[in-house]
Predict the 3D structure of the following.
Amino acid sequence: MLSPAILIPAIINGLLIGAIYALIALGLTLIYGVLHIINFAHGALLSAALFAAFFAFRLLGLDPYVSVFLLAPAFFTLGYVLQRFIIGPASHGDDRNMLLVTLGLAVIIENALLYAFRADTRTIDVPYAFQTINLGFTFLAVPRVVGFCAVFAVAFALWVIMTFTDTGRAIRAVAKEKLGAQLAGIDVAHVYAVTFGLGTACVAIAACLLIPTYYVNPRVGDAFVLVAFTIVVLGGMGSVPGALVGALLIGVAESLSGLFLGESLGQIGIFLIFIVVLLVRPSGLFGARA
Amino acid sequence: MPKQGKLSRRQFLATTALGAAAAATGSVAMPSVLRAQGAPVKLGVLHPVTGALSYSGQQGRLGATLAIEEINAAGGVKGLGKIDAVLGDAQSTPDGGTAEVEKMNSADVCCIVGGYASNICLATTQAAARYELPYVVDVGVADGIVTRGLKNTFRFGPGFGVISKTALANLAAINEQAGKPAKTVMIVHEDSLFGSGLAKLLNAQLPQQGFEILETIPHPTPTRDFNNVVLKIKAQNPDLIIPANYYNEYVLLARTMQQQQVKPKGIYSVLGGAASSYKFVKEFPEAARYIMDCNHWFDPRNEKALALKKKVESKDQFYTYEVYMNYSCVYLVADALERAGSANRAKLTDALASSTFAGHVMPYGPTKFVNGQNEGAAPVNTQVLDNDIKVILPSGFANAKPVFPRPA
């Protein structure tokens, strides 16, 4: 039953799905690292992005791997506007308020999607959706492999932005010491909004990588966000490498516990790891900064 | 003492209250007076049009309203006039459904059609029974719905017991006919009442039919990834796979199997989430090919059913079982209203109980209710052939022969 012929493909599947989790978790951890809020609207924004990718394909005929170059900037702008003109002003400088505002946004976005597109589940059919790479002992789905590579490209790009650009430096400064950054002349409201925009853009990219093999309905984002939140805690709140490593770990843990314990209990593995990490290393794997 | 000729506050209140009461009773009594003169007959149309079941609910509402539109366009119910639909949303919960029954009762409907999900139907039929309000269940397959002795409750479609029995008998027959190529089975089911209940039943009865069950794999709803399930299937290589899950998971499983090049001799489902859905066949013809299902289905030889199919498709909607079952239920009620000659609830209940209605679009034959269950109701076996869904059993309604085992 548990021959390597099953075990190895299961681990590879875990890594591939973990990469998509990583991208969603990256957005969440970025926003947490800088704004110090859990963005409850993350799942709803993922659903919205999936719908955007779906309609870009259906109405404009744009392949998701092409529309990602439109949707990422569009969702960056959306995130920027949401934070700058809604979440920021409505929270009156109190983090707890921000939390509630994002929760409210999640409810509004989800129901707006439900109203506009109904609860119908939709899928797109792209020619490469069923293409596989034959490794001899297993088949790798092409869209999953593309997703895996794209996630590392995005993570690298984020690292470059954070390390070498003025914006990145400003974001790091605000994350470390908000008041100090303000005194040094950094526009904190702008940096907050840029960070939120980057987090939202990550979600849009994740949506474009998911839609070729996945489906979209107004509530689909929820399934991913609980996992992403676990990853953020596991990797260390606010840590980008933590999110990456954490996501791959979680992906494999979910895959293996699904295999050993049955799919219904697949998520037990995730939450067992979660609890152990909280007990043994509460700051997470890479959580020194947080 | 108030002076003569001048109204005191108390007197004023007393008289106006009386007046209001009189007016209120008057207005309650009024519709029945008016109805006799051809005012609309109010019919409750109750579905879960929001929440988790909203797609099915909206399809159900579509079927019911199409029937009402047709009846009204033809002049309404003979002798009673047009039907006025009172639409309700059960919000995908039993509580939501019960609240709507209360509202519909106050709106003075003569009957309610719908409910869709078993748990909603269980609650709504009971709520309606308190007002002796006739209730026609459209889908709700749980057998508890009609075994509680509620006089007001009528189920037009088949129940779970009949469906699973037919499904197993037909599976054995199809396998027999093909020379028994299938010996081993794997069951993949969602882990709530519907999937688990079915898996339990199959585990008890499949061995009696000569099948060996290699493994039963449960999974939650929603499941994001079926790769591991398919790996297990691949490792054990069963002849037959029986999925019992809802639409999204069904599609994801079928697509993953296609992707991992798992090709069993057959995929056979019972009330399969997507197996007899035109949406699935249209969107993923490759993954859907040769899948068999035992499910609710229209009579493919019925002209009216085909005309309705055209009509629904011209509205850019899929012709799903919710549509034609509700469509048929409304016609069933209209027929009973006509025979009762009145929208009186007791008379309508009697007319439904004695119904022999045959003008529906289902492969059921004339309607005959025994303890509220339509005895003629039965599921059929379908198979995805030539990018279409064909009926393969029972032979009386079939428009194709089963293709099993599926060609390589």
